[in-house]
Amino acid sequence: MLKSLVRSFWGGGSRQAQEEEMLKARLDLHRLPRHVAIIMDGNGRWAQRRGLPRTYGHRAGVESLREVVRACAELGIGYLTVYAFSTENWKRPRDEVDILMNLLVEYLHREIDELCANDIRIHPIGRLQELPVSAREALEAACLRTRNNHRLVLNLALNYGGRTELVDAVRTIAQKVARGVLSPGDIDESTIDGHLYTAGQPDPDLLIRPAGDYRVSNFLLWQLSYTEFWMTTVMWPDFRRVHLLQALVDYQRRERRFGGLVRGDRSCSGTGS
User: Is 95 an active-site residue?
Assistant: First the structure.
Protein backbone atom coordinates (compact mmCIF):
# COMPACT_ATOMS: atom_id res chain seq x y z
CA MET A 1 0.00 0.00 0.00
CA LEU A 2 2.73 2.45 0.99
CA LYS A 3 4.73 1.88 -2.18
CA SER A 4 1.71 2.52 -4.37
CA LEU A 5 0.91 5.69 -2.44
CA VAL A 6 4.47 6.95 -2.77
CA ARG A 7 4.44 6.30 -6.52
CA SER A 8 1.05 7.97 -6.95
CA PHE A 9 2.59 11.44 -7.21
CA TRP A 10 4.13 10.47 -10.54
CA GLY A 11 1.43 8.15 -11.81
CA GLY A 12 3.89 5.49 -12.85
CA GLY A 13 7.60 4.99 -13.37
CA SER A 14 7.90 5.74 -17.12
CA ARG A 15 7.29 9.48 -16.84
CA GLN A 16 9.71 9.73 -13.94
CA ALA A 17 12.39 7.81 -15.86
CA GLN A 18 12.00 10.13 -18.85
CA GLU A 19 12.33 13.23 -16.70
CA GLU A 20 15.39 11.76 -14.98
CA GLU A 21 17.11 11.17 -18.31
CA MET A 22 16.40 14.72 -19.48
CA LEU A 23 17.76 16.17 -16.25
CA LYS A 24 20.85 13.95 -16.32
CA ALA A 25 21.63 15.22 -19.82
CA ARG A 26 21.62 18.80 -18.47
CA LEU A 27 23.72 18.03 -15.42
CA ASP A 28 27.43 18.88 -15.37
CA LEU A 29 29.00 16.11 -13.29
CA HIS A 30 32.13 18.23 -12.83
CA ARG A 31 30.25 20.99 -10.99
CA LEU A 32 28.24 19.04 -8.45
CA PRO A 33 27.96 20.31 -4.89
CA ARG A 34 30.37 18.65 -2.49
CA HIS A 35 27.83 18.76 0.33
CA VAL A 36 24.02 18.60 0.15
CA ALA A 37 21.79 19.15 3.19
CA ILE A 38 18.12 18.18 3.34
CA ILE A 39 15.33 19.04 5.78
CA MET A 40 13.15 15.94 5.46
CA ASP A 41 9.82 17.69 6.02
CA GLY A 42 6.17 16.93 5.32
CA ASN A 43 5.87 13.31 6.45
CA GLY A 44 2.98 13.90 8.83
CA ARG A 45 1.07 16.16 6.44
CA TRP A 46 1.57 13.65 3.60
CA ALA A 47 -0.10 10.94 5.68
CA GLN A 48 -2.91 13.14 7.02
CA ARG A 49 -3.88 14.26 3.51
CA ARG A 50 -4.41 10.59 2.69
CA GLY A 51 -6.41 9.89 5.83
CA LEU A 52 -3.57 7.89 7.35
CA PRO A 53 -1.84 8.12 10.74
CA ARG A 54 1.22 10.39 10.76
CA THR A 55 3.45 7.38 11.34
CA TYR A 56 2.70 6.14 7.82
CA GLY A 57 4.30 9.29 6.50
CA HIS A 58 7.48 8.73 8.50
CA ARG A 59 7.78 5.18 7.20
CA ALA A 60 7.19 6.36 3.62
CA GLY A 61 9.86 9.00 4.15
CA VAL A 62 12.42 6.27 4.79
CA GLU A 63 11.94 5.14 1.19
CA SER A 64 12.80 8.65 0.00
CA LEU A 65 15.91 8.69 2.16
CA ARG A 66 17.05 5.37 0.73
CA GLU A 67 16.69 6.60 -2.86
CA VAL A 68 18.37 9.96 -2.24
CA VAL A 69 21.32 8.39 -0.39
CA ARG A 70 21.83 5.92 -3.23
CA ALA A 71 21.61 8.70 -5.85
CA CYS A 72 24.11 10.94 -4.04
CA ALA A 73 26.59 8.08 -3.80
CA GLU A 74 26.18 7.25 -7.49
CA LEU A 75 26.66 10.88 -8.52
CA GLY A 76 29.80 11.29 -6.43
CA ILE A 77 28.50 13.84 -3.90
CA GLY A 78 30.83 13.58 -0.93
CA TYR A 79 28.59 14.64 1.97
CA LEU A 80 24.87 14.40 2.63
CA THR A 81 23.33 15.78 5.83
CA VAL A 82 19.70 14.93 6.60
CA TYR A 83 17.64 16.48 9.38
CA ALA A 84 16.13 13.37 10.95
CA PHE A 85 15.12 14.48 14.46
CA SER A 86 15.47 17.93 16.00
CA THR A 87 15.88 18.97 19.62
CA GLU A 88 12.34 20.36 19.37
CA ASN A 89 10.84 17.08 18.12
CA TRP A 90 10.73 15.71 21.69
CA LYS A 91 7.59 17.87 22.07
CA ARG A 92 5.68 15.52 19.77
CA PRO A 93 3.40 12.77 21.19
CA ARG A 94 5.37 10.03 22.93
CA ASP A 95 4.13 7.29 20.61
CA GLU A 96 5.27 9.25 17.53
CA VAL A 97 8.71 9.82 19.05
CA ASP A 98 8.99 6.12 19.87
CA ILE A 99 8.08 5.18 16.31
CA LEU A 100 10.66 7.60 14.91
CA MET A 101 13.36 6.05 17.09
CA ASN A 102 12.28 2.55 16.11
CA LEU A 103 12.40 3.55 12.44
CA LEU A 104 15.96 4.78 12.92
CA VAL A 105 17.01 1.45 14.40
CA GLU A 106 15.16 -0.44 11.66
CA TYR A 107 16.74 1.68 8.92
CA LEU A 108 20.27 1.14 10.23
CA HIS A 109 19.81 -2.62 10.63
CA ARG A 110 18.14 -3.06 7.25
CA GLU A 111 20.40 -0.77 5.21
CA ILE A 112 23.82 -1.42 6.74
CA ASP A 113 24.87 -4.03 4.15
CA GLU A 114 23.93 -1.79 1.23
CA LEU A 115 25.59 1.20 2.87
CA CYS A 116 28.81 -0.76 3.15
CA ALA A 117 28.49 -2.11 -0.39
CA ASN A 118 28.19 1.47 -1.66
CA ASP A 119 31.11 2.74 0.47
CA ILE A 120 28.89 5.05 2.58
CA ARG A 121 29.94 6.12 6.07
CA ILE A 122 27.41 6.90 8.80
CA HIS A 123 28.20 9.98 10.88
CA PRO A 124 25.50 10.98 13.42
CA ILE A 125 25.49 14.58 14.67
CA GLY A 126 23.63 16.07 17.61
CA ARG A 127 23.31 15.44 21.34
CA LEU A 128 23.39 11.70 20.84
CA GLN A 129 23.76 10.86 24.53
CA GLU A 130 20.11 11.86 25.03
CA LEU A 131 18.78 9.32 22.52
CA PRO A 132 17.25 6.01 23.69
CA VAL A 133 19.71 3.21 24.36
CA SER A 134 18.49 1.17 21.39
CA ALA A 135 19.10 4.09 19.02
CA ARG A 136 22.56 4.79 20.45
CA GLU A 137 23.56 1.15 20.16
CA ALA A 138 22.34 0.94 16.55
CA LEU A 139 24.25 4.11 15.68
CA GLU A 140 27.42 2.88 17.35
CA ALA A 141 27.22 -0.41 15.44
CA ALA A 142 26.59 1.41 12.13
CA CYS A 143 29.48 3.81 12.72
CA LEU A 144 31.78 0.91 13.50
CA ARG A 145 30.73 -1.06 10.40
CA THR A 146 31.09 1.93 8.06
CA ARG A 147 34.10 3.70 9.61
CA ASN A 148 36.42 2.88 6.70
CA ASN A 149 33.98 3.90 3.95
CA HIS A 150 34.83 7.03 1.94
CA ARG A 151 32.52 7.43 -1.05
CA LEU A 152 29.82 9.36 0.80
CA VAL A 153 29.54 10.62 4.38
CA LEU A 154 25.92 10.45 5.54
CA ASN A 155 25.41 12.86 8.43
CA LEU A 156 22.29 11.86 10.37
CA ALA A 157 21.19 14.90 12.39
CA LEU A 158 19.54 13.38 15.48
CA ASN A 159 18.48 15.31 18.56
CA TYR A 160 20.09 18.11 16.61
CA GLY A 161 19.63 21.86 16.88
CA GLY A 162 21.77 24.56 15.32
CA ARG A 163 21.72 26.62 18.51
CA THR A 164 22.63 23.69 20.75
CA GLU A 165 25.47 22.85 18.37
CA LEU A 166 26.86 26.37 18.81
CA VAL A 167 26.36 26.19 22.58
CA ASP A 168 28.27 22.90 22.71
CA ALA A 169 31.06 24.33 20.56
CA VAL A 170 31.39 27.49 22.67
CA ARG A 171 31.31 25.46 25.89
CA THR A 172 34.17 23.23 24.69
CA ILE A 173 36.20 26.25 23.57
CA ALA A 174 35.59 27.96 26.95
CA GLN A 175 36.80 24.85 28.78
CA LYS A 176 40.01 24.90 26.73
CA VAL A 177 40.52 28.58 27.55
CA ALA A 178 39.97 27.87 31.26
CA ARG A 179 42.61 25.12 31.13
CA GLY A 180 45.06 27.40 29.34
CA VAL A 181 45.03 25.20 26.24
CA LEU A 182 43.61 28.02 24.12
CA SER A 183 44.02 31.79 24.31
CA PRO A 184 40.95 34.03 23.79
CA GLY A 185 42.90 35.98 21.18
CA ASP A 186 43.37 32.83 19.15
CA ILE A 187 39.64 32.23 18.71
CA ASP A 188 38.47 32.88 15.16
CA GLU A 189 36.00 31.40 12.70
CA SER A 190 38.17 28.36 12.07
CA THR A 191 38.27 27.68 15.83
CA ILE A 192 34.49 27.61 16.05
CA ASP A 193 34.22 25.61 12.84
CA GLY A 194 36.62 23.03 14.23
CA HIS A 195 34.42 22.46 17.30
CA LEU A 196 31.13 21.91 15.47
CA TYR A 197 29.58 18.47 14.98
CA THR A 198 30.60 18.74 11.30
CA ALA A 199 34.24 19.64 11.99
CA GLY A 200 36.48 18.76 9.08
CA GLN A 201 33.66 18.76 6.53
CA PRO A 202 32.90 21.41 3.90
CA ASP A 203 29.85 23.59 4.51
CA PRO A 204 26.74 22.59 2.55
CA ASP A 205 26.66 23.99 -0.97
CA LEU A 206 22.97 23.22 -1.37
CA LEU A 207 20.06 23.00 1.09
CA ILE A 208 16.92 21.21 -0.09
CA ARG A 209 13.68 21.92 1.76
CA PRO A 210 10.56 19.93 0.74
CA ALA A 211 6.95 20.53 1.84
CA GLY A 212 6.66 24.22 0.95
CA ASP A 213 8.10 25.84 4.07
CA TYR A 214 10.58 28.74 3.87
CA ARG A 215 12.68 28.57 7.01
CA VAL A 216 15.86 26.84 8.21
CA SER A 217 14.21 25.42 11.35
CA ASN A 218 17.32 25.64 13.55
CA PHE A 219 19.33 23.53 11.10
CA LEU A 220 23.07 24.04 10.50
CA LEU A 221 22.86 27.73 11.45
CA TRP A 222 26.63 28.31 11.23
CA GLN A 223 27.24 26.13 8.18
CA LEU A 224 24.47 27.59 5.98
CA SER A 225 26.02 31.08 5.76
CA TYR A 226 26.54 30.90 1.98
CA THR A 227 24.50 27.84 1.09
CA GLU A 228 22.16 27.93 -1.91
CA PHE A 229 18.54 27.10 -0.98
CA TRP A 230 16.17 25.01 -3.12
CA MET A 231 12.55 24.85 -2.00
CA THR A 232 9.75 22.63 -3.30
CA THR A 233 6.14 21.98 -2.34
CA VAL A 234 6.70 18.22 -2.84
CA MET A 235 6.34 16.39 0.47
CA TRP A 236 9.32 14.35 1.59
CA PRO A 237 7.62 10.93 1.10
CA ASP A 238 7.06 11.91 -2.57
CA PHE A 239 10.63 13.17 -3.02
CA ARG A 240 12.59 11.03 -5.46
CA ARG A 241 15.74 11.00 -7.55
CA VAL A 242 14.08 13.19 -10.19
CA HIS A 243 13.60 15.97 -7.61
CA LEU A 244 17.20 15.70 -6.48
CA LEU A 245 18.35 15.98 -10.10
CA GLN A 246 16.14 19.04 -10.61
CA ALA A 247 17.63 20.66 -7.52
CA LEU A 248 21.15 19.96 -8.80
CA VAL A 249 20.39 21.35 -12.26
CA ASP A 250 18.92 24.52 -10.72
CA TYR A 251 21.91 24.81 -8.40
CA GLN A 252 24.28 24.76 -11.36
CA ARG A 253 22.43 27.69 -12.93
CA ARG A 254 23.27 29.94 -10.02
CA GLU A 255 26.22 32.31 -9.69
CA ARG A 256 27.74 31.80 -6.25
CA ARG A 257 29.41 35.03 -5.11
CA PHE A 258 30.17 34.50 -1.41
CA GLY A 259 29.71 38.24 -0.83
CA GLY A 260 31.76 39.26 -3.89
CA LEU A 261 30.84 40.48 -7.37
CA VAL A 262 29.21 38.67 -10.23
CA ARG A 263 31.75 38.04 -12.97
CA GLY A 264 31.91 41.08 -15.24
CA ASP A 265 29.74 43.22 -12.93
CA ARG A 266 31.63 46.01 -11.16
CA SER A 267 28.49 47.87 -10.10
CA CYS A 268 27.68 45.62 -7.13
CA SER A 269 28.53 46.87 -3.67
CA GLY A 270 28.11 45.83 -0.07
CA THR A 271 28.37 42.41 1.53
CA GLY A 272 24.96 41.06 0.65
CA SER A 273 23.87 38.89 -2.26
Answer: no
